[in-house]
Structure formats: C-alpha cells, structure tokens
Amino acid sequence: MFMSPAPLKDLAPERLAALEGLAFDVDDTLTSHGKLTPAAYAALGALVEAGVALVAVTGRPLGFAEVWFGQWPLVGAVGENGAGYFWRQLADTALTVSKGEPPSFTVSGVHSAAALDVHGADGWATRRTQLMDEALARFPGLALTRDSWARRIDIAFDIGEFVHVPLSEQAALSQWLQDQGLEVVTSSIHLHGQPPGAGGPFNKATGFIHWHEAAQGRPVSWDRWAFIGDSPNDAAAFAAFPLSVGVANVAACLPKLPQAPAFITEAEAGAGFCELAAAILTAKGRG
Q1: Which of 83, 88, 134, 143 has its C-alpha lying 20 to 30 A from 194's C-alpha?
Q2: Can you give the pLDDT at residue 88?
Q3: In this model, does residue 90 exceed pLDDT 60?
Q4: For residue 104, what pLDDT is reported?
Q5: Which CATH fold would you assign to the domain 118-194?
Q6: Mind listing the pLDDT tens digit for each residue in 159-212?
Q7: What Rg value do the Cα atoms of the chain yield, rounded?
C-alpha cells in the first residue's frame, strides 16, 4: 500500500540527533533551478561542523562527482546513479603544524571504483557509442545531456533540463533502451540507460552501500544515516534508508515512485535541503 510521506516536522528530533551522515541528491534537491545557492552551500558547511558526514549521490557524471568530491566538504561522492564512487583515506598521524593552528592530515589517496569490471568496461565503451548514435538517429529531436562528455558509464538524454521531451517519446525511448538490454532510470531532468553492472543492476542505494563498505570498511548502520532526494531515480535510496526525506518538489513524481520517502519538507529544492539541515542542527544542539 502506498504511504504518503509525513511532514518533516513530525520527525522525532532524537533520530536526527543520532545521525552521523547525510547522503543527498544534487539536482533539484541541493540545487534550485540548477544553481547552488549560498544558503545551501552554507548548510553543507554547518552540517560538517556539527559532525555530520556528507555524501553526494547523484545522477550527474562521474566526472562531476569527482570534482565535487574534491571541492565540497564531502567524505564521498557517488555518480551516474551508482555507477561509480569516490572516497579518501587519511593518514593516521597529523602533520606538524604551527602553534595555535588546527592539525591537518595527509591525504594518502583518493580512491575510485566502478560498477563495471575492467573487461566489461572495455567492451562497453564501443557499445555505448553505438547505442548513443542509434538512439539519436531513431528519435529526431532527442539530445544527449550537455554533461555527457563527463560521463564514463551511463547514457543520458535530456528530457527536461534544456530540452523538454513529451512523455510518449520518453516512454518509447525507455522501451527501446530496455530492448537493448539496459536498465532505465529517470530523474527530474534526465533519462539514463545503464548497462548491467559487474554485480547486477546498480542504483543510488547500491552505489552508496558499496561506497560505505569501501570507505568505512563495514556495513552501513542505517539508523545513523539519512537520505534526501526529489525524483524517480532516488526511489532505491528512499527504499534503502529508513530515514529518507523528499524535498517538497518530490510531490510531482510520488505517483510514479515504487517507494516514497518517509518524510517531506515544506520547501522545495535547495530551500528544502536547508530545512532538513536546520532540523538536524537543532536536534544536535547547533541550531
């Protein structure tokens, strides 16, 4: 039975106070109309200062995820809907620092892993190009996403970011990709075709799980993590995280979701992210 999300204000503060990490979608969840607002970026910093680890889990390219991982205050980044992930290991000992300065740590390596094994990746590269060319020939007016140059595994088509594709054409494209043996997921702006992973289909939940096992060396303690998102490609994460939150604009796709988030914010997009961040900070006595 479909269960509508409860208002975020109904979420027990003690559950938020116990959080050690927050995984989050980027487009239309952290960002607003394609922009990262000063308030949303400040919320990331405030959460980190309160001891909350942050992991971006996005449908955007692995190339984007790698850059965000290097520039934003993140402990991890998962890209292309779980196709790959990045983590960092710190040295055990602090560097020598000047008196009065905080200690810093040596980065011993930034690590990455992908859902395809080496053999699969080699074979997929040629097939991927063939499929992109054939799709564009079969569906006049269809366009690859403008970020496709930074993608390494999935095929992504613009259905609502710069090009608006009718639902009937989205359905036809989705069916064609499935007929080619691909998994299909959609976000609020893109439609993705994904090859089978080395361990089976991948998604935002499995991508996060693999990141956590690689970065933390242990299974996820689900009561210590939350996820926030907004669209159909977040459904697997909504199902995996007991504490899942949708920003208000998730309401537009709730009828299409196999699993709704447990809670929903009053505000949309980046403002909704800030709403959750404020609730976490208040629960931790930092609001």
Answers
A1: 88
A2: 83
A3: no
A4: 40
A5: Hypothetical Protein Ta0175; Chain: A, domain 2 (3.90.1070)
A6: 999 999 999 999 999 999 999 999 999 999 999 999 988 888 899 999 999 999
A7: 19
Domain map of the chain by residue range?
Answer: 6-115+202-283, 118-194
Considering the chain, what is the average pLDDT of its residues? 91
CATH of domain 6-115+202-283: 3.40.50.1000
pTM above 0.90? yes
Query: At which residue do the structure tokens 């505000």 appear?
Result: 267
Q: Dihedral of CA 63/205/19/95: which sign?
A: negative
90 vs 231: CA distance, rounded Å: 34
Is the pLDDT at 109 greater than 80? The verdict is: no
Tokens 């979701």 locate to 257
> Do residues 24 and 111 lie in contact, with contact meaning Cβ atoms separated by under 8 Å?
no
C-alpha–C-alpha distance, residues 42 and 56, integer Å? 15
Give the whole-angstrom CA distance, residue 28 versus residue 34: 7
Whole-number Å distance between alpha carbons of 243 and 240: 9
Report how far apart, in Å, the C-alpha atoms of 125 and of each of 106, 118, 128, 155, 202 are: 35, 11, 5, 11, 18
119 phi-psi bin (left φ>0, alpha ψ -120 to 50, beta other): alpha
Look at the chain and count its residues: 287
Contact 230, 190 (CB under 8 A): no
| Structural contact between residues 39 and 274, judged by C-beta atoms closer than 8 angstroms | yes
Find residue 227's DSSP bridge partners. 23, 244
Strand partners, 78: 57, 85
